[in-house]
Write a structure and sequence with these properties.
With 277 residues, the protein is α/β, with parallel strands linked by helices. The protein has nine helices and ten strands. It binds fe (iii) ion (2 copies) and zinc ion. The site of one fe (iii) ion (FE) has 4 residues, from loops.
Length: 277
């Protein structure tokens, strides 16, 4: 069975997200670990977590994906901004352990003129401080579009980060289809070639999840503007190839398309219908 879901609002808690997922035909979901602007996280509601866990095992939600606030920058030039990213991610990971065995995705950051080498070193430094041997959460680096000074625009940059991480068994990658196409990986014409490249440079065993978004912009535009499935430059056929690809079909897929719940339900139904059982 395909593992598919979308980004949901976490404002009403985990049980609510689980039920919302079921309502739209999803069996997994993504949520912000806290307000995306990066403010203080609400206290965890243990009753909600317990109720969610019961619901998830009954209904069948195998894994979920937390997304760190996109405003964090672990490789900022400003030491206080880096410190804030470190504290936020450390606290998020501590909270994730109440759920056990899920994924935590983050944007590697923007080096803001320091150069990618220094940026990569700073990102790895943060990871080396927050990863713990006993932790059950896998931290995912998201592939980025290469807007401005974004790190993670190439598979090589992701590998270079991972190479510097000591507890690298806790690290994986989340591939965003809009971002990699924007970054110059042609998953429309040559999905096999891109996956081969990924395998050679990073290793496909690191790939743990996918964000499936169409793109408002043409190939290699480094803009990062998501589009609804089938309405952008990637096209429905690309997504049918991705969800059925022998090397990808077991991964959880997450929609981050510009949609309300109704639109997500439609896209989930569309892709479920194209999944070869
Ligand atoms: Fe993201
Ligand atoms: Fe994404
Ligand atoms: Zn994006």
């Amino acid at each position: 069975m395909i593992k598919i879901g979308c980004h949901l609002s976490s404002s009403k808690g985990f049980l609510h997200m689980g039920k919302e997922a079921e309502k739209i035909g999803a069996n997994t979901f993504q949520f912000f670990s806290r307000n995306p602007r990066g403010s203080k996280a609400k206290a965890l509601n243990m009753e909600d977590i317990k109720a969610y866990q019961e619901y998830a095992s009954e209904y069948g939600i195998p894994v979920i994906l937390a997304h760190a606030p996109y405003t964090l920058n672990p490789c900022s030039k400003d030491a206080r901004t880096r410190e804030f990213a470190f504290e936020t991610m450390e606290d998020d990971l501590r909270r994730m352990e109440y759920l056990q065995g899920n994924y935590y995705n983050f944007h590697p950051g923007s080096h803001v003129g320091q150069g990618s080498e220094e940026g990569i070193r700073q990102i790895a430094e943060v990871l080396n401080h927050i990863l713990k041997p006993e932790q059950t959460t896998t931290v995912l680096l998201e592939t980025m579009a290469g807007k401005g000074t974004e790190i993670g625009r190439s598979f090589e940059e992701l590998r270079d980060i991972i190479d510097l991480v000591e507890l690298d068994s806790h690290i994986g990658v989340c591939m965003d289809t809009c971002h990699v196409y924007d970054a110059g990986y042609d998953i429309v014409q040559d999905l096999d070639g891109v996956l081969e490249q990924f395998d050679k440079i990073v290793g496909l065993e690191r790939l743990k999840a996918m964000h499936i978004n169409d793109s408002k912009n043409p190939f290699e535009s480094h803009k990062d503007r998501h589009e609804k499935i089938g309405e952008g430059s990637l096209g429905v056929e690309t997504f049918v190839n991705i969800i059925n690809h022998p090397k990808l079909r077991e991964l959880p897929f997450y929609l981050e398309t510009p949609n309300e719940l109704e639109g997500y339900a439609k896209e989930i139904a569309l892709l479920k219908g194209k999944y070869l059982e």
